Amino acid sequence: xxxxxxxxxxxxxxxxxxxxxxxxxxxxxxxxxxxxxxxxxxxxxxxxxxxxxxxxxxxxxxxxxxxxxxxxxxxxxxxxxxxxxxxxxxxxxxxxxxxxxxxxxxxxxxxxxxxxxxxxxxxxxxxxxx
Length: 130
Hints:
Blueprint: H1 2-9, H2 13-31, H3 41-51, H4 53-63, H5 71-129
Helix pairs in contact: 2-3, 2-5, 3-4
């Protein structure tokens, strides 16, 4: 369960890229409200991935006539994307460490409870034997 929960909750490179593509489409909608109406998110992601993200963003900006006024928004998206990608190995390592700890602590507690029960049981048997 711990490993399954970790896998479901921990972002991977593809989920970060999907989030970035979604952020770009939302930024484009600020300039052209009807952009991407009816387009499949999967199709948009596949197109962006196949063209390369930088080339895809440049093509979108020229298609929707987003000039220098959009630089701040797109730079913010790029910064978040780069930070998320660079933090990914650290987050994954920390997640694995937390999974190990989340497994070891309960197992240690169960072992300690078993040891204490055995200790009490031995003490009770010794007093009955006297």
